[in-house]
Amino acid sequence: xxxxxxxxxxxxxxxxxxxxxxxxxxxxxxxxxxxxxxxxxxxxxxxxxxxxxxxxxxxxxxxxxxxxxxxxxxxxxxxxxxxxxxxxxxxxxxxxxxxxxxxxxxxxxxxxxxxxxxxxxxxxxxxxxxxxxxxxxxxxxxxxxxxxxxxxxxx
Length: 155
Prior knowledge:
This protein is mostly helical and 155 residues long. 76% of the residues lie in helices and 0% in strands.
């Protein structure tokens, strides 16, 4: 159970962290924080639903087959179909599916959209290859940084 919960936590967290730049771009073109938060929570709940359905499917299909095989190997083994573990872990997954995206959004939202775009660009190593590249990237950053002084390409 704990391994499954940690795996679920890792999947949701990694999915959000790796798409930070995408979220910054979405917010730069008009997505609100509330819309982003809603999208992340729904995605977390979708992961929850997928995990529960996959475990239920594996339990229903593979349980009797593996139970019979193990029963024939060990005389003391008895297989009984039960949904109790899935039903017990489901509320934990729902809570994680809600809490992980919200906490991750909080940590991401501490920085402005411009800071997140600059950070994502520096992490990917995206360099300026041409003057047009420089202008396009500078215009995007300057257009959304309301507190920054207006700069020319030469300064």
